[in-house]
Batch of 3 targets.
Target 1
Amino acid sequence: MPHLNGLLRLCGAGLMAVALLGAPLALAADATLMGRTVTLRVLTYDDPDAPLFEGRSYATQVGDGTEFGLKTEGVQNDIDVVPIRVDIGPSRIEFSYETAVPGELATAKFNGYVLDFGGDCNLFWSARVDRDYSDFPVTEKRVFFEKGTLYVDVSGLTYDRQSRFAIDLELSGCGAS
């Protein structure tokens, strides 16, 4: 019987370890951007401490439909917002230049979109451009994140009204309510 008791304790410890290791996976499986508050702004800089352009901040709660329809805001240092639609899903963000006059985006060390989902934790595990959906030349090298903020650099890229791209996100689930 002492061996059986030790075996039961060992099995119990093993099940507890599996449950604890599986908890982050279960949390990630339920992770979603839906219902979260997000703030979007356009930012352009060669030096992060001296931005060339700082767009207005727009906040909304992620839900069904298009979250943002940015329009021009007024020129700063020969740079203005190029109209774009941004639709955020549970783990995907789609960008479309369908309302913009064709052109080229300003060239800088960073010129792009800053989407802040808040929190002081690492919300994103990975970000991947959906090549099947996208016809815009943004790549994974231009998408990065820090804690709850996603950065999309579109510096120097050419667009037209058919230009669109999507970023699929793997979420950690941190900060979920």
Note: The helical segments are 2-29.
Target 2
Amino acid sequence: MNRSKVVESLQMNYQAIKEGKGKWFDKRVAYTIARSFVDKERRFSDADYRHMEEILKGELGMFNVLVQPVRGILLGMLLANGKSRELDIHTLIKDYQRLREVGFQASSYSYFSAYLLQFTETAEKEFIVRRGQSIFEEIKSHHYFLTGAEDGTIAIALAQQEKLESLTTKQVGDLVEDYYQALNDQGFHKSNQLQFAAANAAMLTGEFSLELIEDIKQVIDELKQSGLRFRPEFYNSIVTLGFLTTLKKVDFQVLREYLELLEEKTNLRFYKDFRHSLALGLLIHEEMSLLSNDNLNISALTITMIMAQEASAAAAAIAVSVAASNSSS
């Protein structure tokens, strides 16, 4: 894989976003959208974005919960996956209503959950939504004050996973909690990011894996050698890399190459942690693409789920960061 071209593609899509309707987007939002287009046959189209946003605004009306940065990231993900028709917006809103009807919160983040439902057959959506709500309540029973609307995405992702079909929703919630405690024992701070990472571990493995925990230790050491601090923003990526390490040898020299390219070719000079998070995402994307068909334990749907989880987490982190910046200015 030509990594220089990957970063050039990322930067090209970023520029297209910033030169269009995304002119006033926070840089991290624009790069999160641009990353959705990496390795895709299509490029970001400002005309398509404006068209989809107008349809969305027309359907939702003036007063609605789908605000920036979630709206921009969500529309970018839809466009990156070839969803640019009016019907795609109608489906998103209808799936959002399904979620609301069973008790999911009225929140921008519930739209990420609705986005995931496009990968479920219509006949199965009612079951997945109800199972997802039950999983959400089980997770919340372990961490009442920690669990919020943004965690709906992980609940739906867990409900969609074939590896977890044989488990009751209580067993799924307990598995997430087992990973939460095990990762906390390895130095992961108790936080929403840890809850995301624990759910990701459950989704990837389908059962508790001591091998994964051991490999995660190695990943943390590798990141430190590459100059990355052990930060909550990286928790989800660390778990995914740990899982990949159980399947194949991960080349962390690739991470160092992406770190250099992103520092050299992007507009993220003053966003070091986000730049590092982006490099981890590109490494994961490349490593997943190298898995052989015989060893493909990660489905395309799972990859999409991971990206949706990360986008939801990124949107939450960016929103908090921007709010803090505005309050201090």
Note: DSSP finds 15 helices and no strands in the chain.
Target 3
Amino acid sequence: MKEISINYFNTKKGCIQLMKHLPYNRFIFYFGCALFLMIGIFEFQKSAEVARRVADGNASEELILLVISVLIEGVRFLLSVAVIYFLGRLINRIKGNHLYNKHISSSTYPIHYREGDPFISIGEKRRRFPLDDKLTIVATQDYYLFYSGKPWKLDTFLINRDQESDPVYRSKLDKLIQLVIEQEGVNFKKRK
């Protein structure tokens, strides 16, 4: 059996990416967008009814009022999505900085994996991270993000993809990811 050991370092940017791609945070963003879309549709229906009453049978006035209400609701929806997006980015940055400053005791972490084991060992204490159907690996441009557990209580860690362009590190990391993905039930996703 092959054993792979890698020492990687954490960065604030990595911790922010870890928070950004949390399934819970992504759900909140899409839920907020859908909620504001439904509110916008409801408000448009109300303003369309008001336009019909005000126009009192005049088709050109009704059309002008409908176009204005569509524009107003469209701008309101876009502003709502922009607020959700930038608020989410701010919260992810705050959470990522907090994670990096308060909970990461060392800047480098060893990872050990023995082929065939149902877990990865992380850190000096060799904390076990299970490789099962609850594990999701998200590959971004700079990191591999690992999420395991229930959506409201996830165990997470990340691995830097480009350890200052060290070819030995890259080959070990590629082999590790390949072996982990081959485990039954492990989910793998690519994102920007």
Note: Residues 24-102 form one domain.
